[in-house]
Each structure stands twice: as C-alpha cells, then as structure tokens.
Amino acid sequence: TALLGAASVAAGRQPRGPRRDGTVRWSSAAKASAVNINEKASREKILTLESMNPQVKAVEYAVRGPIVLKAGEIEKELRKGIKKPFTEVIKANIGDAHAMGQRPITFLRQVVALCTYPNLLDSPSFPEDAKKRARRILQGCGGNSLGSYTASQGINCIREDVASYIERRDGGVPADPDNIYLTTGASDGISAILKILISGGGKSRTGVMIPIPQYPLYSAAISELDAIQVNYYLDEENCWALNVNELRRALNEAKAYCNPKVLCIINPGNPTGQVQNRKCIEDVIHFAWEEKLFLLADEVYQDSVYSEGCQFHSFKKILCEMGPEYYNSVELASFHSTSEGYMGKCGYRGGYMEVINLHPEIKGQLVKLLSVRLCPPVSGQAAMDIVVNPPVPGEESYAQFIKEKESVLNNLAKKAKLTEDMLNKIPGLHCNPLQGAMYAFPRIFIPSKAIEEAKAHKMAPDMFYCMKLLEETGICVVPGSGFGQREGTHHFRITILLPVEKLKILLEKVKDFHIKFLEKYA
C-alpha cells in the first residue's frame, strides 16, 4: 500500500478516501500507474543472470542439485495429501549421519553442552572428565564464553590438542600447533587453500588436478575461482585405484593449456569408497615432489575404514617416513572434520587443516585471508577438540565412549558389506568393494532406448535414471554425472547411513525399480 501510495502521489493522483477498516481506497487509474512503475522497476534490476558473476553461475553442486530440489517438491506434495506410489521420500543423497538416525556420541554432546551453558559445570549429572575439557576450552575463549570471537586460526589450546592427536595418529611424527588452522568444516579449509594457490591468466592459469569421480566441492570451488580443472581418472576396474601413470597423462596434457600446480587426493574416497595403500601414497608423493605440485589430502573419512587388509595411512606420516628430501620440501595441506565417521556432527561445522612446508610469508597471507571471516564457529571448534581429545583409559567416560564409537563403526562396516552384496545381486549393476567412507557408487547399465529418451529430455542418462527412481519409489540418490565419470559409463551415489532394516528395504526397492527399468527400455 505504501508503494502504491507513493507511486500514485508521484503521478499526481490522490486517494479517494479511507475505507471503514482504515485502509485507503485508490482509483483504477492510480493502481494502473503503480503497476506500470513496478513493471518498469522490475525491468531495471541491477543483478540479473546476464550481469551476475559468471564464475558463480558456473558453480554446480550435485549433492544438493536438481534431483534434491525435485525430492523437496515431492515431499510438499505428500504433505498436501497428493497420492504417490510411496509414502515418504528417502534421502540417500547426502552423508548426514544424525539425520539418518546415527546415534550421537554422548561425551561430545556433554562437553559442547557444558561449554554452551557453563552453569551445568556445577551439575552432578555430568562426568568430571567432560567438565575438565569444557573448562579448558572456555579458558581459551574471551570472557570464558563460547559466544566470543576467537583468533582467526582458532582457539590455541584446541590447536595444541589437534597437534597432539596428529602425533599420536602418525606414530610420533611431530606436529606444530602453528601449522594447524581450525576451519568451518573441511570445506572451508580446502576453499581457503585454493584461493591462495590460484593465480595467472591464459596458459599460465593455475590447473588443479582432481580425481574423477570427485566430491563436487572441488569442481565447484575451481569454477568459482575461475581456475582450470584437470581431471585424472580413478581405475574402476581395479577398485578405484589411483594410478601414477594416469596422473602423468593428465598432467602432461594439461600443460598445453594451463599451469598445473595443485594435486588433490581424497582418501578414503568420496564417492568411491576406496582406501589408498601405502605404496600408492608413496608413489603420489614422489610424483608431487618430482613435478613440483602442492598436495591437498582430503582425509575426512580417516576413521571409516572397513575392509580387511585396508588401513588408513595419512599423507603426512608417509611423507615423513620417505625421508628429509621429501619431508622438508613437499608442500602439503591435510584436512579433517567433525562431520564424518563415528562423529557425524555435520551441523557443527567443525574441522581443521594442517599445512606444512608453507613459505613463511604465505603463512601470513593465509592468516590474513582467514581473518576476513573472523573465526570458525566456536561450538564447532569445541566439537573438533573432543574428536582429537577423547576420553582415555582411566577416565570415567572412557568405557561408554569406546562402546558408542565401536558400535557406530561396526554398524557402518556391516552396512557397507550389506550394500555391496545386495547391489551386486541386481542384474545390470556392479558395485566395487566399499573399503571405507560412507557411500556406494555402483555402475549402472542404461539401455540405449533410455539414453535416447534422456537426450530428448535434455538430461544426462544417469540423471534421467535417478529422476525416474525418485518419482517411482521416493528414493533420492545422486547421479554419477554430478561427480564425474568416464565417458560412456553411468553411476549413482547412495549413502549407507540409513538404519539396517530401512537400508534393506531401500536396496530391495532399487532392485525392483532397476529390473522394471530394464524391462521397459531394453
């Protein structure tokens, strides 16, 4: 009404007078004038798809892309009572552990609760080892409050705890708290390092080598920063192994159009679930040293390793054990977070990165960049502290903590095997062993008739498949094209986080759907 009045007065038209309810009545001419002004204003938007930042427009993030938006629309329709062949949407598209029913770790919740509401420190309901950690964290906060800003690098005592954790994990390899940066999940650290690394123009523009399939954070960040994406393909026929010959092929081809200087590794793999062995990591480090590449090691699933004979090896540990020629020269950033594994604290947005062999002047530039966002969420920093500083033998919370942690990890291992076995019984699907992480990435056979129909709908074949799966069963998974895949192959990513019985039902529905899909399109 205010806009209408202003427009009409500006046009020289006066209101007719108030209604009984006190609102003003306007003539038809006044209303038409206001509409014309509104239309003119809408035609003069400063920010449009044509004028917006083209790098942002180029960003794609399949994990929350079109298929998830469609799932949201279907959920709204179900709430309105619109009939579907199913009663609920099962979101198997994202690794959101607690949303899927994974039980929280009590000790972590207790410490964060104590930090958030310190009056609870006087309560007998909380164990002393939790109170001890909460007091230490609060002493590192301004005003002893979780609500205060912290140093841009994070609370000092938590960075000290992260360094101690890394030393324990890596069998005594030294870690310096000054090389630790607390982050808003691992994603924040990865983006920050890429911002520092990317420079140049034309053929000297920075190239970033990423695995295909990859977690879409990498392609999204590369697009946003207008860097050059350099794909290297994991070997699906060999359980998604990383082959140095493939790295060399990708690097040599990329040198014709960019300056490749960053190599990203995801271990354990997302979406592929493989765990790199020691020899593979040594080969990658040697390759990075030889070709003068900055290494990014995404290790957020380091606690989630299931297959017999598989073991997580950190790049930092292997780098140190390869000798000073490598350890003193290869630049490496490693990432971890509270979101994955037995913790599942996605919403806290806690994480850290350790960066070694960084030029002293660049360290200052990195801190400056991080200071722009002031500090990571302080509750997330507190959660990260409990991940790296859990109860130890002799403390009263130790038995419960170990019981809960092992229960979650054993359950994930059981579901990984169940998913692999059930998917491999479906004709036209093949799933590699799920050695770690929390996803399956099966290859799906899509008949040529379905591929042609997908083209008619201007969809990638696996997007078409996944959309049909969603519309007919209510199951939401992410098409493999959102992660990248070899030409002519098709996949989808599905999380294994659902409760066992619900996961069985989901996999049976996938089986029934796939068989009908083949019958229809074969």
Would you kindly provide a written description of the structure presented here, covering whatever features stand out?
By secondary structure, this protein is of the alpha/beta class. It has two domains: 55-101 and 399-521, Aspartate Aminotransferase, domain 1, CATH 3.90.1150.10; 106-388, 3-Layer(aba) Sandwich (Aspartate Aminotransferase, domain 2). It is 44% helix and 12% strand. The chain has helices at residues 2-10, 28-43, 54-58, 66-79, 106-116, 128-139, 156-169, 185-197, 217-224, 244-254, 278-291, 315-321, 324-327, 360-371, 378-388, 398-424, 448-456, 461-473, 500-521, and strands at 17-18, 24-25, 90-91, 180-184, 206-212, 228-233, 259-266, 294-298, 332-337, 350-356, 429-430, 439-440, 443-444, 475-476, 478-479, 492-495. Strands 4-10-9-8-7-5-6 form a seven-stranded mixed β-sheet, sandwiched between helices. A three-stranded antiparallel β-sheet has the order 12-16-15. Strand 5, helix 9 (217-224) and strand 6 (228-233) form a beta-alpha-beta unit. Helix 4 packs parallel to helix 18. It starts with a helix and ends with a helix. It catalyses: L-alanine + 2-oxoglutarate = pyruvate + L-glutamate. Residues 110-509 form the Aminotransferase class I/classII large domain. Pathway: Amino-acid degradation; L-alanine degradation via transaminase pathway; pyruvate from L-alanine: step 1/1.
Outline of this structure?
This protein has helices at residues 2-10, 28-43, 54-58, 66-79, 106-116, 128-139, 156-169, 185-197, 217-224, 244-254, 278-291, 315-321, 324-327, 360-371, 378-388, 398-424, 448-456, 461-473, 500-521; strands spanning 17-18, 24-25, 90-91, 180-184, 206-212, 228-233, 259-266, 294-298, 332-337, 350-356, 429-430, 439-440, 443-444, 475-476, 478-479, 492-495. By secondary structure, the chain is α/β, with parallel strands linked by helices.
